[in-house]
Amino acid sequence: MRLASVIKGGVAIAALGVIVAWVVTRPDPLPDDAFAGLTPDVAHGEQVFWAAGCASCHAAENAEGEAKLVLSGGMAFASPFGTFYAPNISSDPDHGIGSWSMQDLGNAMMRGVSPSGQHLYPAFPYVSYAKAETQDIADLYAFLQTVPADATPSRPHDMPFPFNIRRAMGGWKFLFFDTDWVLTGDLTPEETRGRYLVEALGHCGECHTPRNALGAMDRTRWLAGGPTPDGKGKFPNITPAALDWSKADIIEYLTSGFTPDYDSAGGHMALVVQNTAKLPETDRAAIVAYLKKVPPVE
Amino acid sequence: MLRHLTTAAAVTLALAGGAGIATAQDGPFEMQIAARQGIMAYRALQLGTLGAMAKGEVDYDAAAAQKAADNLMASVALDGSMLWPQGSDNEANPKSEALPAIWADGSDIGAKGKAMVDAATAMQAAAGTGLDGLKTAMGEVGGACGGCHKAFRVPQ
């Protein structure tokens, strides 16, 4: 009798756990009217495109010039959880995202949810893009419709069990999908713009902030650098504790790629500079104003 | 002619000061590697003059900017055939940061080199005409430097 009660209780708790897990891990798309009333501005969409660094991962590797707009994907991202491959986001309706609605793009970028309602892996930096303005997403959507179509099929991610269970990403999101600004307090308009460019569109923290054991950004060590996902290199600390370049030095770096020694940016950062170089100088200055404002982390 | 002599003298000085006088005994391609790195240092010296103006650290000076751009162009126009012999990469000699990919089949090192010549030419045309032109050309030169370094230099 007593044993039966225990078993019944156990079953009830397990059932409750399953229900909670089911609810917690459920994909959470944007409200249907998230983009209602917005008129896309395609020219501004191109600015958003460069600020958000889309081409750095989704263009074919070593693409330059106009080829940067052929977003056929394929770049590999090795990680402790498996290897991710950047998908085709060209305007091709079958292999790219040409058939997506504005709502689909919004759900992918701001909620990490695919058009079929599945969780996306956070190798795609939706944790950062979630802080974007819906107007910017609408503008970007309009611009992405103007880039060339490419029929290269997207390469499936190479994820071992259990990381290949997309539903489990719902639990990850429950724990780590934090869309609050990291830097808070009184900010000038320039610092506020810089925060938007660094924390949201530019997704700088995705590389420059160290990650915990489950691959989530450690917001207590914001922009303090850390190991690369393949463990072979290091992302530099860009808080004022380590980045002691002058404002003019950092702006020049984000414009031409030259370091204060007139060496040039290397690795993935060379691709980032190709993006920041296309922004208005006021935006590069805003990024620097923000970087000078973040708390120093040793 | 005088400009080229000046360049040659400066390159020699950069070699003597930066890397020591290399001799063939130190390792494979020792002299070529030292010469290449000296030329890179010489370019950084000229870019330092141009960059200080681009950053607003010093006032724009058309004559000084033109001189630096001319020197940069001269360094880019140096004959490279004796500097980059086949196989003079960082596997042959770890003092070099040049990747074997430079000499691999399908390498676009030629296009990358031409991009540098084009960027230096644009800088030479722009540097003396005003600060805005200099800043634009600085971005092109940076892109050309980075294009080659990203593809063909040991990751930093």
Automatic annotation (TrEMBL), chain A:
The keyword Iron applies. Coiled coil: none annotated. GO terms for molecular function: electron transfer activity; heme binding; metal ion binding. This is Mono/diheme cytochrome c family protein. InterPro entries: Cyt_c-like_dom, Cyt_c-like_dom_sf, Cytochrome_c-type_DH. It holds the Pfam family Cytochrom_C. Gene3D superfamilies: Cytochrome c-like domain. Residues 40-148, 189-295 form the Cytochrome c domain. The keyword Heme applies. Keywords: Heme, Iron, Metal-binding.
UniProtKB/TrEMBL annotation, chain B:
Heme c binds at residues 145, 148-149. Pfam families: Cytochrom_C_2. Coiled coil: none annotated. Residues 1-24 form the signal peptide. Binds 1 heme group per subunit. Keywords: Electron transport, Heme, Iron, Metal-binding, Signal, Transport. GO terms for molecular function: electron transfer activity; heme binding; iron ion binding. GO terms for cellular component: periplasmic space. It comes from the Bacteria. InterPro entries: Cyt_c/b562, Cyt_c_II, Cyt_c_prime, Cyt_c_prime_subgr. One of its GO terms (biological process) is electron transport chain. This is Cytochrome c556.
